[in-house]
Amino acid sequence: MGPPRLSFPGAGGRDPLLDCSRPDSAILDPAPIPPLPPSTPLQLERALQLLGLSGPQPPAGEPGSAPWLQQLIDALVDLSSRDALTGLANRRAFELALAREIDRVARSGEPALLLELDIDHFKRVNDTWGHNAGDQVLKAVASALIDSVRPMDLVARVGGEEFAIILPNCASAFGETVAERVRRRVERMPVQVAPGQQITVTASIGGAFAPQWVRSTPALWVERADQQLYRAKAQGRNLVRLEPTAMSVVSNEERRALFETFLPQDLE
């Protein structure tokens, strides 16, 4: 018996792809590519309106050029990183800076202090004098914080009446001094809330140092500072409370992260 005969689907028992009688163009030519749509012009009016309402000057140069567009992008990035009322860094910018700083401390071993600040009885200001007065208090506190720290430090508004300060290269010997300077500056600052009417406010401050040479997380650092802030408020407000030393107790999470970085040969 001879070998089995192969049969191909299609007319005449032949596979169309193997039918040499058909012209190549009928088989191999790809489907036609539709023409590309014309480029859509950039809609920049709203971006420019937003910048105009927020204060920054419009980009200089030829509109639509690469340098002009880069200036526009840079201005929008800066705008998206700032609190609209106080001009401080907003929570998004604060969290990015915090992550960078705690990584730097883990790598370099240099100290860094995080201060959390809460305006005492802020609701009372709003209830007594109105929300416009509350806004004036927030802006005045923001200005006092900026005046109390170095240009390299980052001051952020992270909530309604909550602020945070990241202080790189701040040794533990100076942490209490810096925090007290901030507290006194707020306490002694008069705020005009109505024509001929001034008030003063106080703030409670808690602080913690980032653990040096330990891989930690921003959330754990914030938690430690928050714990000290709660202490300051529970003990009477208008107080500074910092962790006792820069060498923070390593948490279970940080201990696991530290050990996970070891290779087996490191333990031999």
Question: Describe it for me?
Answer:
43% of the residues lie in helices and 13% in strands. It is α+β, with helices and mostly antiparallel strands. It has a domain at 91-258: Reverse transcriptase/Diguanylate cyclase domain (Alpha-Beta Plaits, 2-Layer Sandwich), CATH 3.30.70.270. The strands form two sheets. The chain has a five-stranded mixed β-sheet with strand order 2-3-1-6-7, sandwiched between helices. Strands 4-5 form a two-stranded antiparallel sheet. A hairpin with a 4-residue loop joins strand 2 and strand 3. The longest helix is centred in the middle third of the chain and has 18 residues, at 91-108. The protein is globular and about 75 Å long. The termini are far apart.
* Averaged pLDDT: 83
Strand order of the largest sheet: 2-3-1-6-7
The CATH topology annotation of the domain at 91-258 reads as: Alpha-Beta Plaits
- The CATH homologous superfamily of the domain at 91-258: Reverse transcriptase/Diguanylate cyclase domain
CATH class of the domain at 91-258: Alpha Beta
In total, how many beta strands? Answer: 7
Helix content: 40-55%
Count of individual helical segments: 9
